[in-house]
Amino acid sequence: YPYPATAPFWIFGVIAFSLVLLVASYSLRRRFIRVLPGRVENWLWLHTWLGVISILIAFQHEAYLDFFGNFRFMLSDLTRANFGVTALYGLIVLVVSGIIGRLLDVWQARAISQEASKNGVGIIQSVEERLHEQNLLLERLSAGKSSAFKQFCTRALKSRRVPPLPPQSQFVPQELKDLQRFYGVLALRLRLKRSLQRQRRAHFVIRGWRFIHISLACLALLFISIHSLSEIAKMLLQFFLHR
Fold this sequence. Notes:
Helix content is 79%, strand content 0%. It is mainly α.
């Protein structure tokens, strides 16, 4: 009878657990042990595909009984065999979320790259620096001007769109040149602010997914480790007792 604790199915379990540890080593490589050999991109590729392979080998370990047979969500089933079913479902959810996150990462990175090339300034840090320079320039242009000029500047800076130019008769003739310059800088500033918002939104999506994925990884690794280590200890104990 095919059972995960019998040969050769227990061997697949050991291999799957070893692959999960290798997959987890990517996080160590990225956050803590930066002296490990290889590029981060290669470790990410290894991280993704080893996760997929570990699911296939885990299916071999439990002979497809708890997935293709039927889903079991009763507490007695989830805790059976030292959380074996929970470890399997956790691994599946973790790898699926990783694949979704990888697609999101590529999609949002492409969106950020397109925004950087479209705005003519660059990524978030460069846009923030340019916006700061423009704010200082707009303050200098409005300094020492008439009340009508300053009121227009105040309304324009609070607006989310480029306001129409008011009649020039409202302003002092000497202010018209600075008014045109202010208007041009204001239009560029609003475009950069929209680009900055889109780039920040893309970063927020990536950071949000990473938080969810890392949380799932911690839970899944906990149950996988409990199941794997307890089953390995049980097998070793039986081996030594029957020698």
